[in-house]
């Protein structure tokens, strides 16, 4: 295409046709006026198929569809008693509603290919149910009104812009009911571009990703807070020009925000987190509906920020503090008091030690996922504390920590519901620890043993007998 390159295959223009409604009534029969679809019965397993010599159908589109038709037919309700099933039926005889149901199972590229087979398939492929949840991935280089009209016609409401040479306003104007806009990595997005694009309220837009848009500053956040009041997801990872003022604007305007990613926003400090937590009510109410907060690599944050989080963000479910080197054990006292917190990432937090694990366990934390990988002050005593208080853990990551068989045996005997255990590069671990894991952690589904050079085939054989184990990472393991 000359005007724009669309990774989601562009379909030909659709003439005006009668509307169609997808038939899907669980518990009811498909009453067809003619025997268009062969349905499996106890007496016949024949399903619709495509003859190899069927005319007017491109081989690439029809080859995979036969299997989809078989899969769909298996899930259709059986015919009423006494019903008959023909020996076979040509695909061209299927109702548009059935074709649309089949096309909905294809990947994005094959949806487009199917639409180019014939007019009947094109009409069925344009049904909005076929494109539900699909994200269009676009290279926008010139004006493309036909492209946007095509997206609207198919009901596409999620767009990722891979490269952008024109104004961002063209996208927002062209797809007025846009729900999700991903601009991650578009380095030429500027405050001026966002200001021109956001000229009125856009109530349908609930997700915005500006990750690595490094020219974006607090000025853009002011515009977003003013016109995108219904945002629930805002990703600003790598937007290194964002400051505490930007967080104040977010706290003022985005009351429905549930997920906020501030990874590597190096100017963010404790005061900015206080704005999010609504602790300065005279200026902003805060984002009290937040459930997921990403603060990875925000190195100016201290334990005071965690105190603010605990005081104001009571609905928070997950927080990522990895590489926040100023966070200490004392900050975990505040997080331990949060009843809704389920995921805690402390990866490479150098000042977290066994004492911090004691604070979490004794404070009644109900976290289900804990990552303290590369915290070299975490040792066997930390696992003693974990085994005595963090009984809800389903995932535990201890990669490169100073733990041994002794600590592993402690958690193996109490964390019976653990499903994921990452202990890669724990060089003190031997077969003894693996034997204990194999005996006690029967629900384990994933284990990472990358770089555990002291284990042997004896330990591995025991681990591989775990009934639910599906992922085993050995990496640099050396057979002895």
TrEMBL record:
<dbReference type="Pfam" id="PF25372">
    <property type="entry name" value="DUF7885"/>
</dbReference>
<dbReference type="InterPro" id="IPR032675">
    <property type="entry name" value="LRR_dom_sf"/>
</dbReference>
<dbReference type="Pfam" id="PF12937">
    <property type="entry name" value="F-box-like"/>
</dbReference>
<feature type="domain" description="F-box">
    <location>
        <begin position="88"/>
        <end position="134"/>
    </location>
</feature>
<dbReference type="InterPro" id="IPR036047">
    <property type="entry name" value="F-box-like_dom_sf"/>
</dbReference>
<dbReference type="InterPro" id="IPR001611">
    <property type="entry name" value="Leu-rich_rpt"/>
</dbReference>
<dbReference type="Pfam" id="PF13516">
    <property type="entry name" value="LRR_6"/>
</dbReference>
<dbReference type="InterPro" id="IPR006553">
    <property type="entry name" value="Leu-rich_rpt_Cys-con_subtyp"/>
</dbReference>
<protein>
    <submittedName>
        <fullName>F-box/LRR-repeat protein 14</fullName>
    </submittedName>
</protein>
<dbReference type="GO" id="GO:0031146">
    <property type="term" value="P:SCF-dependent proteasomal ubiquitin-dependent protein catabolic process"/>
</dbReference>
<keyword id="KW-0833">Ubl conjugation pathway</keyword>
<dbReference type="InterPro" id="IPR057207">
    <property type="entry name" value="FBXL15_LRR"/>
</dbReference>
<dbReference type="GO" id="GO:0019005">
    <property type="term" value="C:SCF ubiquitin ligase complex"/>
</dbReference>
<dbReference type="InterPro" id="IPR047932">
    <property type="entry name" value="FBXL14_F-box"/>
</dbReference>
<dbReference type="InterPro" id="IPR001810">
    <property type="entry name" value="F-box_dom"/>
</dbReference>
